[in-house]
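A quick aside before the break. I want you to see a complete sequence-to-structure record at least once, exactly as it would be stored in a machine-readable document. Don't worry about memorizing anything.
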Amino acid sequence: EAVLVQGFPQDDNLARLRDELRSALRAHGVGENLDLRYKIVAAHFTVMRFSNPQADWKRLLDFLQAYRETDFGETRFQSLQLIWNDWCVSAGATRTIREYALRD
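That is the input. The structure line, written in tokens, reads:
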């Protein structure tokens, strides 16, 4: 139902940020369901979500397989947003709770 681009962190900053966030959420009583199935360690982002069940899936699969090993370069982030949303990040169900600036 989506296409993701894999990411590979260059250092441990993402892991440390996630661990700090897990600790803070648990300390406030809202992190009890974190990591129930597995601990999230991936560094990916969604680039496409599907809404048309009649799409040309074979053509899309061929395209994705052709670019499977493509290096899309490096992405740097200046901020993170804590959001409330549904699984599909629907516009009507998404709201920003807080934005956090990141240090260089």
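Two observations worth writing down. The two ends are 34 Å apart (CA to CA). Residues 13-27 form the longest helix (15 residues). We'll return to this after the break.
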